[in-house]
Design brief:
Number of strands: 13
Shape: elongated
CATH class of the largest domain: Alpha Beta
Strand order of the largest sheet: 1-6-5-2-3-4
CATH topology of the largest domain: Rossmann fold
CATH superfamily of the largest domain: HUPs
Largest sheet: 6 strands, mixed
Distance between the termini: 61 Å
CATH architecture of the largest domain: 3-Layer(aba) Sandwich
Structural class: alpha/beta
RNA sequence: GGUGGGUUGCCCGAGUGGCUAAAGGGGACGGGCUGUAAACCCGUUGGCUUGCGCCUACCGUGGUUCGAAUCCACGACCCACCA
């Protein structure tokens, strides 16, 4: 299958500037780039789609450039934003660039044959003399046309928010990037999110005018969910690629919990599984949805890709423990990670020695607001200690309640956890 | 400014002197079922003790009464109609 057809089958193609791109890609290696905004020190899964896109190009033998916007990040892209953004400091942006650079290295090969290239547009934008820029670049942009751009027009019509000259100029800078990369790296294609269409086209125009080179542009679709909610958010907030921000366990769980209706698309987007494999998994969703083989495979593939084999094994093990029942055998570090979002209470070890009444301790720890509520919970079979149902209202808390050196895991209902740490 | 109606537990809402910790619904929580889903079914939903016991509760304050969410007075707030 041709690369372009494969991308189309996977759903990566939202818009293309020229249909000829499909053939052009078959004629030999092409250089392409995609920009990443340093708006935080980590990418979140919203950036996963462009990253996967780049990876497909690299696998097909094309030369990919990952451009981190260390320069444009200082200005701020107005695309899709309703408010003027507050400027970030140079130090902040520099730090973010570093964080993002490290993460991209997990997805793209930067060594061996046909290595990917990582660039930072601060390297050329920061040096750009203002007068030269205005004469050589600015001359080619019609303000009339720019005012018609959706992202700009909205902001101008809305007196509440407005748009500063700084953000208005953003598109020129991104256009200049394309020009620069075309000149220095023979870059012929820019890809990006669907909100980047305008910026991409602006870059192509500039490149044609100044270099006489025809280039391509292509955008990826916005990732949507069948139920209309926003992709990329979990109950705990944004899902990040940085394991410090979103633990591999949470990450794995995020994918496991995707709806049946979304999984086929997500398998195409976020895994390298073949068409055959994906179609087989789709058949499973139809024939035996309760097994959720597709979700499991999706979670496995993406977690392995982002966090590696070891982290995946840990996440699977933790998931089995939490949802399968037995907590025994998990170490303290894993427990703390799995329950990192669950509330916890520190208690003196003496409590165990005294053998205090479990319900009293739980009321004290804020698990229940009254003893009556605690009793009711036990009566209806909703209280668990280390995932084993507590059925005696007068149960006492002793050393035996500990699952590890310091921890006892309290659960009410299906998934409300509370950790008791004895120090 | 006048007249009439209202203020109930997390929310809505029944309740017009004792049988009312207060119907019913929603929500929430728990159990069952299940696919770490949806739907559905059952249960719980003031506190303390848990066997019938006590305490605190129906806007606030005071009163009538053996007994008041329920009657009366005053106050606060809300709504409607009239000016």
């Amino acid at each position: 299958m041709r690369l372009f057809d494969m991308l189309q089958w996977r759903g990566f193609v939202h818009q293309v500037t020229h249909p000829e791109l499909a053939d052009a890609l078959e004629k030999g290696p092409m250089t392409l780039y995609c920009g990443f905004d340093p708006t935080a020190d980590s990418l979140h899964i919203g950036s996963l789609l462009p990253i996967m896109g780049l990876a497909h190009f690299q696998r097909a033998g094309h030369r990919v450039i990952a451009l981190v916007g260390g320069g444009t990040g200082l200005i701020g892209d107005p695309s899709g934003k309703t408010d003027e953004r507050s400027l970030m400091t140079k130090e902040q942006v520099a730090a973010y660039v570093e964080g993002i650079r490290r993460q991209l290295e997990y997805f793209l090969r930067f060594d061996g044959p046909n290595p990917a290239i990582m660039l930072n547009n601060a390297d050329w934008l920061a040096e750009l003399p203002l007068l030269d820029f205005l004469r050589d670049i600015g001359k080619h942009f019609s303000v009339n046309a720019m005012l018609n751009r959706e992202s700009v027009r909205k902001r101008i019509e809305d007196r509440e928010h407005g748009i500063s000259y700084t953000e208005f100029s953003y598109s020129l800078l991104q256009a200049y990037d394309y020009l620069h990369l075309c000149r220095e790296y023979e870059c012929r294609l820019q890809v990006g999110g669907s909100d980047q269409w305008g910026n991409i086209v602006a870059g192509m125009d500039l490149t044609r005018r100044l270099l006489g080179t025809d280039t391509f542009g292509m955008t990826f679709p916005l990732v949507t969910k069948a139920d209309g909610s926003k992709f990329g958010k979990s109950e705990a907030g944004n899902v990040w690629l940085d394991p410090e921000r979103t633990s591999p366990y949470r990450f794995y769980q995020f994918w496991i919990n995707q709806a049946d209706a979304d999984v086929p698309r997500f398998l195409r987007f976020f895994t390298f599984l073949s068409q055959k494999e994906i179609e087989a998994l789709e058949a499973c969703i139809q024939s035996e949805p309760e097994k959720r083989a597709a979700q499991r495979r999706l979670a496995e593939e993406v977690t392995r890709l982002v966090h590696g084999e070891d982290a995946l094994a840990g996440a699977v093990k933790a998931s089995q423990a939490v949802f399968g029942g037995a907590l025994q055998g998990l170490d303290e570090a894993t427990l703390n990670e799995v329950f990192s979002e669950a509330p916890g209470t520190e208690l003196p070890r003496a409590v165990l020695a005294e053998g205090r009444a479990l319900l009293d301790v739980l009321v004290g720890a804020g698990v229940f607001s009254s003893k009556g509520e605690a009793r009711r919970m036990v009566k209806s079979g909703g209280l668990y200690l280390n995932n084993e149902r507590v059925d005696a209202e007068d149960a006492r808390l002793t050393e035996q309640a500990l699952i590890t050196e310091h921890i006892a895991v309290i659960r009410t209902g299906k998934k409300n956890y509370h950790l008791l740490r004895f120090v």
